[in-house]
Specification:
The protein is an alpha+beta fold and 466 residues long. The chain folds into three domains: 157 residues; 83 residues; 156 residues, Heat Shock Protein 90 (2-Layer Sandwich), CATH 3.30.565. Helices cover 47% and strands 20% of the residues. The strands form four sheets. It has a six-stranded antiparallel β-sheet. Helix 7 packs antiparallel against helix 9. The two termini are 70 Å apart.
Length: 466
């Protein structure tokens, strides 16, 4: 038996359902209250009308000395003189019973005698029709004492007025049809307005969904800023998540490119060493050295990819030994050019950061200098004279006697994948790696022409560690 996939209601369906139920309940209670109020008002009006008929009779009727009731010549309503009209009058007492002409052929349910000035209203009550069965009517009664004369006894009786219930029921029925018709139309109108309002209110959410779909399909990079204030935290969080994911992806891609670029020099050293004749023991030592260096490079790049950045709070790293290791390898790679590399490193100058970052900076700058130099490369390192070693800044420059870099090409060459000469082998990411590391340590990289050697000059300055 297949399971039924019950999908949750949409926000609009939930709102319409909740609003519709609340609206129906409200209009139902309102309609019931209005119906009861109208019915009670109509019954009160009927009671007042029947009372007015009774008092109109009192003003025109008389009693004889024998206690017989003489009705008015003109009744309050002509229907009292029409048999079966639905409007009846009667008087009942211990020795008195009088009924209007309209009561002919009907049996009126006269109640027990009422005390003087006592009033009674009920309905609908059953009125028997001797010819057509029975009907219903509203009944008003009032107790009276009538003084005939000074020497005649008083007459105590109850006066009754009946009116057919059909008129009131018809009036209430007409009101109910109109009431529930208008309330139903109002309910449909309000539900329609509610649907339109909800569609308009949920438009920003649909806009966010559309923008997310465009981001998913690669048409846009992020969500726009044109959203209501209530959705700004959501869209901002989504954009932050997208930006973080994009940065993570770019960092992994750059890390792989950096890893390939960093391994290029050790591999070139190995290739050059294998192709040149020499002592097998020295070859083994060189292979072991370069393999260890490659292992360090791989560990450094992987840890940087996981950590997502550079740490400026590492221990101080001596610059001279690392520079010598890199230059020795480069001299083997570019042995056919006979490059002379000179050092001018201030005593105590150190790099306060990760060892891998220092190796990347020195390796890329020196390799670039060896690649373009004709015969000479100069590495200059100077530190500030701050009393605390941790507070000293660092200035580093690499110069060569090559063709140099035109000022208009500096910014372009610092971008990833751009090479100064397409004919020269390389990946075009070495200087971009240097620039990323320098920025991570809040440093500065400047490219100019060397006044002493005539080629390119790369100046790096790192601020003191705070």
């Amino acid at each position: 038996m297949a399971l039924i996939d019950w999908r949750p209601f949409s926000l609009q369906a939930r709102q319409v359902l909740a609003a519709g139920m609340a609206l129906i309940a409200f209009l139902g209670l309102t309609g019931y209250a209005l119906d009861q109020a109208f019915t009670q008002t109509a019954e009160a009006a009927l009671r007042d009308r029947l009372r007015s008929y009774a008092y109109a009779y009192f003003g025109g009727m008389e009693f004889t000395r024998g206690g017989r009731l003489i009705e008015p010549e003109v009744p309050p309503d002509p229907r009292f003189n029409t048999p079966g009209s639905g409007l009846y009058a009667a008087a009942s007492g211990s020795d008195l019973l009088w009924e209007s002409t309209s009561a002919l052929g009907h049996s009126l349910p006269l109640t027990s005698e009422l005390a003087p000035a006592e009033e009674y209203f009920e309905g609908p009550v059953v009125v028997e029709d001797h010819g057509e069965g029975s009907g219903e009517a509203y009944h008003y009664a009032i107790g009276l004492i009538w003084e005939i004369g000074p020497n005649d006894p008083e007459v105590a009786f109850t006066f009754h007025v009946f009116e057919d219930a059909a008129a009131l029921e018809y009036q209430v029925s007409v009101f109910r049809r109109a009431l529930w018709g208008y309330l139903g139309a109002a309910a449909l109108l309000l539900i329609g307005v509610q649907v339109l309002v909800l569609r308009w209110s949920l438009t920003p959410l649909r806009s966010v969904a559309r923008e997310l779909d465009r981001v998913r399909r690669g048409l846009d990079d992020c969500l726009s800023d044109c959203h209501p204030r209530e959705l700004e935290p959501l869209t901002h969080s989504i954009n932050t998540l997208l930006d973080t994911e994009r940065q993570q992806r770019d960092r992994y891609r750059h890390t792989l490119a950096d890893l390939a670029h960093s391994l290029k020099t050790p591999l070139a050293v190995l290739r050059a060493r294998i192709e040149s004749p020499g002592d097998p023991a020295a070859l083994r030592d060189e292979v072991a050295t370069q393999v260890a260096r490659m292992s360090d490079i791989v560990s450094y790049q992987l840890s940087r990819a996981v950590a997502g950045g550079h740490s400026p709070f590492a221990a101080a790293q001596a610059i001279a030994p690392r520079a010598e290791e890199i230059v020795i390898g480069l001299e083997k790679v570019y042995a056919d050019k006979g490059i002379l590399c000179e050092f001018e490193i201030a005593e105590g100058a150190a790099f306060h950061g990760e060892l891998g970052d220092l190796q990347e900076v020195l390796g890329n700058l020196l390799e670039n200098a060896f690649k373009w130099a004709r015969a000479r490369v100069l590495l200059t390192v100077a530190g500030s004279n701050a009393p605390e070693p941790g507070a000293r800044g660092l200035s580093l420059s690499v110069e060569d006697d090559g063709p140099g870099i035109a000022p208009e090409n500096v910014e372009r060459l610092l971008q990833r994948g751009v090479r100064g000469d397409e004919r020269v082998h390389g990946h075009g990411i070495g200087l971009a790696i240097v620039q990323d590391i320098v920025r991570a340590y809040q440093g500065e990289l400047r490219v100019s022409r060397s006044e002493e050697m005539g080629g390119a000059r790369f100046d790096l300055s790192f601020p003191p560690r705070r």
